[in-house]
Amino acid sequence: MSKIWIEILTPKQVMMFGRLARELEKEHELLITTREYKETNELLELKGISAEVVGKHGGGTLEGKLIASIERTEKLSQLVQAEKPNVLVSLASPEASRVAFGLKIPHVCINDIPEAEAVARLTAPLATLIVTPKLIPKEVWQKYGVQKERIVQYDALDPVAWLKGFKPNNEVLELLKIKKGKPTVTFRTEEIFAAYLANKVSGSSSLVLPIVNELMEKIDANFIVLPRYREQDETISQLLNGRAFIPHHAIDGPSLLHYSDIFIGSGGTMTLESALLGTPTISCRPFNTMYENYAVKKGLIIKADSTNATKKALGIIHKNSSYKKKLGKKAAQLVERMEDPIKVIKSVLQKFV
């Protein structure tokens, strides 16, 4: 029986590769690796996915990232030499990419964000194949040294991989103490440790917190704030002092987004999830990507910043529910037309097992 190595580093990858793993394990042996990273580890547990924890997240400094990556690469190398997988699938993991290249293991590299230049430079040139959304022109990957024949495209946005056939679980309403009769406003804090956002965000401030405070002064609502890191959790919990619900552990994000009346995000994955679920979505991310621009053009995401996000949010909240229903219908039609990324990835993997 062939063995497939799946690297899972972020919550998005739990959602995407979790489904892939469930389908592959019927016919193949799996090696699933991750790292010490609170949100990812908790979500893996929530989804019932067993993974080998190898190394840790490097934090926000370049020095910390470098040392953590070096140490993790060595530990991964030892594990992988013992396990001898036939192929690796990762979502642009620098450490897994380097190990696979060094040990001549084929690497199917998924990537929807070529704008994250450091990661792309460390992974794309070493990958056997790049599997990527069709909305990203092949020429974009060629600048990283990837020949056109090594690029496989799927006609979809990544969250379609786990949102096709999605059914919300209303247990999240009780878990987050969401009160009926009030609008639910959900926020996702910004990524503060990503290399591609260096000099764009600060760990000592928040892009969404001023918006939370402004909206709290103007409307009575259920406010949910989803931090990414322990540092954000502690700081925001102190500043909001019980005025918003802040989950301290991983939750069923898609279900929460489904039941939210509006989502305001400073990141990528949950913003796309919300948009594709038909929830009115405002993006305050200080960074443009091709996939977000695509969703904006389709009318599923509204771009804003800290100066105008509150006004735009109030405009949406004050509209009746027909707005969300109309948006939901548009999103559902778009998702229905899109390819299933998991089917494409499975098809590519068959070439190596």
UniProtKB/TrEMBL annotation:
Highest taxon of the lineage: Archaea
InterPro entries per record: DUF354
Pfam families found in the cross-reference section: DUF354
Name recorded for this polypeptide: DUF354 domain-containing protein
Species, as recorded: Candidatus Naiadarchaeum limnaeum
